[in-house]
């Protein structure tokens, strides 16, 4: 039995020689170990490290994938192993097992594995080891570049890197846009591991003088197919051209497309293809249960509401095809108060808000996240129970990524896909081809809660919400219209009016491209074999539209290449899921801020989102609608350029092409501008004044009084401008204004006449009073004369009196003329003077003038004597 038996002699006694030999061997081994330790202690640290690195590197070649079950089975540095252990990562997943060894050996790797299978660590571990091997320090500059398609994914990767790499001394940075470029530029040069989005990276390459990647050791492309789908093919090419040729490249994704293989050919050297689930029965996690339901478009909102009501304790993600749908339905659902926290994540939010929502949803145990496809890839929200695909994904790959947000790393999860009857056949077929096991389930009609009436009442009270509903409507129709796969997405089969009603709208908004499409006779008619009926095919695009798109796309691309405004990612901030008004207001503000920020933001800051991209090409189809919110955001998304079968390469040489008719820049008419303003729902500042009675008088903008409110409503709900009606309305307005003006003038004249009359009355009153005074004076003097006899001394000096009377009379006259002036009586005639009558002074003067000299019949001397006598006798 083993060792004891060996040490015994033939009689079963222990053999002392053998025992001694064993002891001696052990002892000498211990001694040599001690010696080595002593030697090492004398060595400088760097030397010890270098030796352990060389030992590790020697072991790289000995890696046997089949023997590996734990991270510690790989020859990894102590620092990395410690980081992994501290983060509770011990056992390796299949993709980690198969790729880490290859990457350690310095090979280029193209790795594909199901969602949630641990691809992030599959590249982060080799990243850390690569720099450790080289004893990288901050002075060595950029060593590893990790490119992610979305900001959230980059952020998430950065967080995992921080966790597992915390024992290393490298510096790591996250460059994803949404922040000050200068601020980033100051720090970028000291970063050893840079996690970034492609747009922002290229911008730094173009604009940050001190940024260079000449020392780069490793490039990692996470979700590479998504990066390409988002329209970053050219950006990626430009980035790769700026990188040193001698480097290692790792490329990972859950799905592989032809474009990824093209990129791999371009950027990888003799890559090792690792597709761990290639032979698996299904391409989705085994723990994921997947179902679909078929329902009419107009039922979808009620289905969603009913679903949420019955999953109040769960954590769910609901995927929509456009930002505007998320924006509208988020608000509406907050108001509906289903009894669960609602959050929104889409490409039109500010970066900070996006991060807030991301973190909040990570933390929550039960909540629902309304999201566009920016949340479809790579995001690792813990413990998501349900993924509900409210709108059909554009293809099976998108479905796989969306559904993969649940059932991650050995967890369970459920996915529910909502399909329209017209989408069912094509989509289910595609999914089965991609090895996605989906089963149909049916809605229990008794559990369906109809919310249409509630939505109608919300919209009746809230004009802003109504605008959002209209935009949501157009945006959804457009997203269907722009889908590549016309077998699945047929806009002509959509129940348009019913859909509008289901959103709470009384009338379906005008959708220009639909009208245009309906006017055009279908190009291809297919004879149905069964019924020999002529059926139109799914709508196809006209050459003009293709041309127009081409021109538009070229323009965008050239702007992008020049570093102009980047269309890609009008990213969004999550609306906080709490259903209170404050939240909504906050989001409104943010949206506004976001627009402002976007205007300032440099072109290549962020990454596009799927939802947005779907909307992008619509800019030419229904430009005003697009322009209304955030222009470029929508443009660059996934597969957009393939919508018309265009190759990106064609876009590289736009100048050489003859400018097509449609490529000529449209002149911006006033009507277009007005429409834009209408669509933006700008609220112009109002100055409101009040009459003395307290009625408000709106001065600006002038109130339209001639048109009834109903008519306005009707007009508004159509969502466009009817020029004839507008003219009629203006004419009516004009008439109304003229009538108003006339009334005002008449009122003014009447007022003037009344004033004049009043003034005349006043003047005559005053004259009458003066006359009375004069008469009284004269009466008194007569009386006096009668009572006391004649007293010449009491008589005024006739000369004095005359002059003063004259001046008085002048004064009076002046006064009169003043009064007259005031009364506006400029002409004076006799009759008027008569009317006014003589003044009292005049009358006085007249009286004095009429007094006859007293004839005593005496001589002058006798008269004098008589007067003196009289005076003496009086005194
Ligand atoms: N070795 C491991 N041990 C334990 N957990 C792991 C291990 N590797 C990864 N995980 C966990 O599995 C989850 C999914 O990992 P990861 O996000 O890397 O998946 P993925 O393959 O990149 O998914 P996707 O394709 O959706 O991006 C994460 O929560 C991660 O923490």
UniProtKB/TrEMBL annotation:
Stretches of the chain forming a coiled coil according to its record: none
Compositional bias of kind Polar residues: 696-706
Catalytic activity of the protein: ATP + H2O = ADP + phosphate + H(+)
One Gene Ontology MF term: hydrolase activity
Motif Q motif boundaries: 69-97
Region (Disordered): 1-43, 522-541, 560-669, 692-851
Group of enzyme by EC: hydrolase
Alphabetic keyword roster: ATP-binding, Helicase, Hydrolase, Nucleotide-binding, RNA-binding
Quaternary structure and partners: Interacts with AIM2; this interaction promotes AIM2 stability. Interacts with SCNA; this interaction causes DDX10 mislocalization to the nucleoplasm and cytoplasmic inclusions.
Protein family (similarity comment): Belongs to the DEAD box helicase family. DDX10/DBP4 subfamily.
Role according to the record: Putative ATP-dependent RNA helicase that plays various role in innate immunity or inflammation. Plays a role in the enhancement of AIM2-induced inflammasome activation by interacting with AIM2 and stabilizing its protein level. Negatively regulates viral infection by promoting interferon beta production and interferon stimulated genes/ISGs expression.
Entry protein name: ATP-dependent RNA helicase
């Amino acid at each position: 039995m083993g060792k004891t038996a060996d040490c015994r002699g033939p009689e079963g006694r222990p053999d002392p020689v053998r025992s001694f030999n064993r002891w001696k061997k052990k002892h000498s081994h211990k001694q040599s170990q001690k010696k080595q330790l002593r030697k090492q202690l004398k060595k400088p640290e760097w030397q010890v490290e270098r030796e352990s690195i060389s030992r590790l590197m020697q072991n790289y070649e000995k890696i046997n994938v089949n023997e590996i079950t734990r991270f510690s089975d790989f020859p990894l540095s102590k620092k990395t192993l410690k980081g992994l252990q501290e983060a509770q990562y011990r056992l390796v997943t299949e993709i980690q097992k198969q790729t880490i060894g290859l990457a350690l050996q310095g090979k280029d790797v193209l790795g594909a594995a199901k969602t949630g299978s641990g691809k992030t660590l599959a590249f982060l571990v080799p990243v850390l080891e690569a720099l450790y091997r080289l004893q990288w320090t901050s002075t060595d500059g950029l060593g590893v570049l990790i490119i992610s398609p979305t900001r959230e994914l980059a952020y998430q990767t950065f967080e995992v890197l921080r966790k597992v790499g915390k024992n290393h001394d490298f510096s790591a940075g996250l460059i994803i846009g949404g922040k000050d470029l200068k601020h980033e530029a100051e720090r970028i040069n000291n970063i050893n591991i840079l996690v970034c989005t492609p747009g922002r990276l290229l911008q730094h390459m173009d604009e940050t003088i001190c940024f260079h990647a000449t020392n780069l050791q490793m490039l990692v492309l996470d979700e590479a197919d998504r990066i390409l789908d988002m329209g970053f093919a050219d950006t990626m090419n430009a980035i790769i051209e700026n990188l040193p040729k001698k480097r290692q490249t790792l490329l990972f994704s859950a799905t592989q497309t032809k474009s990824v293989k093209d990129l791999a050919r371009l950027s990888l050297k003799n890559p090792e293809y690792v597709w761990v689930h290639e032979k698996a029965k299904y391409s989705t996690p085994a723990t994921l249960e997947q179902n679909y339901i078929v329902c009419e478009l107009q039922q979808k909102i009620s289905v969603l509401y009913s679903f949420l009501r019955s999953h109040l304790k769960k954590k769910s993600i609901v995927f929509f095809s456009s930002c505007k749908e998320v924006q509208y339905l988020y608000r509406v659902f907050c108001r509906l108060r289903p009894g669960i926290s609602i959050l929104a994540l889409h490409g039109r939010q500010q970066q900070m808000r996006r991060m807030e929502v991301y973190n909040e949803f990570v933390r929550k145990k039960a909540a629902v996240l309304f999201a566009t496809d920016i949340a479809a890839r790579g995001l690792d929200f813990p413990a998501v129970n349900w993924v509900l695909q409210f709108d059909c994904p554009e293809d099976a790959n998108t479905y796989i990524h969306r559904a993969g947000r649940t059932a991650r790393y050995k967890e369970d999860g459920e996915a529910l896909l909502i399909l329209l009857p017209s989408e069912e056949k094509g989509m289910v077929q595609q999914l089965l081809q991609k090895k996605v096991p989906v089963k149909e389930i049916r809605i229990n009609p008794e559990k369906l809660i109809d919310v249409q009436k509630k939505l109608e009442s919300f919209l009746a009270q809230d004009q802003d919400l109504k605008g959002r509903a209209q935009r949501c409507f157009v945006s959804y129709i457009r997203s269907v219209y722009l889908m590549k796969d016309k077998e699945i997405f047929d806009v002509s089969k959509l129940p348009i009016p019913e859909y509008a009603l289901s959103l709470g709208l009384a009338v379906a908004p005008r959708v220009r491209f639909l009208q245009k499409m309906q006017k055009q006779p279908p190009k291809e008619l297919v004879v149905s074999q069964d019924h020999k009926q002529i059926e139109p095919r799914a709508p196809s695009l006209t050459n003009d539209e293709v041309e127009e798109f081409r021109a538009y796309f070229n323009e965008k691309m050239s702007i992008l290449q020049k570093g102009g405004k980047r269309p890609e990612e009008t990213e969004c901030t999550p609306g906080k899921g709490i259903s209170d008004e404050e939240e909504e207001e906050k989001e409104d503000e943010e949206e506004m801020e976001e627009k402002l920020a976007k205007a300032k933001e440099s072109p290549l800051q962020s990454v596009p989102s799927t939802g947005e991209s779907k909307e992008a090409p619509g800019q030419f189809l229904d430009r005003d609608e697009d322009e209304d919110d955030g222009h470029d955001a929508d443009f660059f998304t996934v597969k957009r350029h393939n919508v018309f079968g265009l190759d990106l390469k064609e876009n590289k040489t736009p100048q050489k092409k003859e400018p097509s008719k449609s490529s000529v820049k449209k002149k911006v008419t006033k009507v277009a501008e007005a429409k834009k303003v209408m669509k933006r729902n700008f609220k112009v500042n109002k100055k409101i004044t009040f009459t003395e009675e307290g009625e408000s008088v709106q001065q600006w903008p002038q109130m339209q009084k001639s048109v009834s409110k109903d008519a306005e409503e009707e007009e508004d709900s159509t969502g466009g401008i009817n020029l004839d009606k507008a003219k009629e309305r203006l004419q009516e307005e004009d008439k109304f204004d003229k009538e108003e003006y006339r009334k005002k003038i008449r009122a003014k004249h009447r007022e003037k006449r009344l004033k004049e009359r009043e003034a005349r009355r006043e003047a005559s009153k005053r004259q009458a009073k003066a006359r009375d005074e004069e008469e009284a004076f004269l009466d008194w003097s007569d009386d006096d004369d009668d009572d006391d006899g004649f007293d010449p001394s009491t008589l005024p000096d006739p000369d004095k009196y005359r002059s003063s009377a004259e001046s008085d009379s002048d004064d009076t006259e002046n006064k009169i003329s003043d009064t007259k002036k005031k009364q506006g009586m400029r002409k004076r005639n006799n009759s008027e003077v008569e009317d006014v009558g003589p003044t009292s002074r005049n009358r006085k003067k007249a009286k004095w003038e009429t007094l006859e000299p007293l004839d005593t019949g005496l001589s002058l001397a006798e008269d004098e004597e008589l007067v003196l006598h009289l005076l003496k006798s009086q005194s």
